[in-house]
Amino acid sequence: MAGVRCAVSANQQIDIARFLDWMERDFPHDPEVLYTATHAYSDLSIRASQEVMFTAPASPQVHELNAEALETQGKWDEALSEYRIVLQRDPNLPGIHFRIGRLILSRPKAATTAEDARREFEEELKIDPYNSGAEYVLGELARQADKPAEAVEHFQRAANLDAGFMDAWIGLARSLMAEEKYADAVAPLQHAEKLQPADPAPHYFLSVAYRRLGRVDDATREAEAHSKAMDAARQAKQTVGEGIIGPQPAQGQPSGPPGP
Length: 260
What we know:
This protein is mostly helical. The chain has helices spanning 2-9, 13-26, 31-55, 60-72, 76-89, 96-106, 113-127, 132-144, 148-161, 166-178, 182-195, 200-212, 216-245. It has a domain at 1-55. The N and C termini lie far apart (50 Å).
């Protein structure tokens, strides 16, 4: 850690990365190491962004950095303007139409929100046909518009592009279920369940699919698994919360010691 501090002071970025690699390899769960790494990586990020701003102030990447910063502040229109400048400078830069589409969906809804976003994700796929995220969001937009057949096509492509994309498998299954194709929905849900056994969602939708298919025992098993996963998720959330702000009194219980 002393090496990290010295390398940061001397702006030796390669040495910073080397020391961090050593620490994270030899002490992977040490809280002090993780704390030091958090600040070191943040420092590296700031220095890299400053360097690109000074060395290439008119580059598309500087406008992209500005857009990202504005987006995190909720300044949707200003961020959108920056992303449009990026496209003017480099119309085929991957990821920009995707970011614009995501931004459109994040800002306050309008009558044309879904259509405007859909157009951006379709433009993204023309530049990057392997963008599973764009396929997924197009699937969600179709599903919300009650177009299950179209949604199935997008979710299936997203899952094919990224077999580890659990939400794409669940979206595929939900769209198949909307078409009452419950038997076809089972395999995607089983795949999602294998990807993240602790996630409640695959268990829930599997229980629904099995029940529709008359597989009562399987439906009951998945319903119980869903209940256990929900309890585990609540417990994990409570544990994290107590670790940050301390244990909280039960509802209706006094928060301090009893009075005299």
